[in-house]
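Lecture notes, continued. The same structure-token format from the folding unit now serves as the input rather than the output. Read the line below as a description of shape only.
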């Protein structure tokens, strides 16, 4: 699934759709350069789970846990991860194994240590906006994509239905 996200509002709106489609569980990898919109997308995911406030980048703490209406969300940012040992030290392995939703920025920094994700989201800059490419990596991930495809808002953002116009 490939989407065109024209501005920050849409990035958050898409995050909210994704948050609903995830139904409170799974591991989501968010890949993309600095400024690609990973944290903004996470804000939408958290909002869908009932978090209204700001979202701080856990760049130095590596993970920010959220306890929301019956849902636990762990927001990882591995940008500054030097050694996976640091993740072991803060109990990262247990957090990832929990029946919770884990959103992981910079998963490539934890390669070889992180368990396989359910869903991979690749974000890239496109003009003033962003493009998102989503790929399922498990049955849960596939179900998430199917739920997303059934959401009316997403049809208007799809690059597939817009054909080659954007190129
Ligand atoms: N779809 C979008 N279109 C335009 N600007 C966006 C979009 N998504 C996010 N931004 C902006 O990009 C900047 C970086 O976003 P951020 O989520 O912090 O990126 P990352 O976490 O990938 O480094 C922010 O100023 C944000 O408002
Ligand atoms: Mg970020």
């Amino acid at each position: 699934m490939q989407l065109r996200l024209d501005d920050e509002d849409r990035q958050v709106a898409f995050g909210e759709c994704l948050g609903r489609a995830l139904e409170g569980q799974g591991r989501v990898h968010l890949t993309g350069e600095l400024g690609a919109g990973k944290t903004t997308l996470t804000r939408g995911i958290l909002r869908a789970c009932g978090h209204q406030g700001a979202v701080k980048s856990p760049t130095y703490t590596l993970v920010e846990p959220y306890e929301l209406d019956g849902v636990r969300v762990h927001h990882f940012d591995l940008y500054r991860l030097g050694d996976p040992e640091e993740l072991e030290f803060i109990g990262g392995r247990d957090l990832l194994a929990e029946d919770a939703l884990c959103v992981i920025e910079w998963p490539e920094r934890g390669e070889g240590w992180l368990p396989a994700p359910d869903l991979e989201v690749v974000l890239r800059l496109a003009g003033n906006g962003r493009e998102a490419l989503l790929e399922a990596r498990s049955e849960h991930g596939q179900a998430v994509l199917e739920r997303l495809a059934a959401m009316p808002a997403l049809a208007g953002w799809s690059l597939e239905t817009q054909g080659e116009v954007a190129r």
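Point for the exam: The chain has six helices and seven strands.
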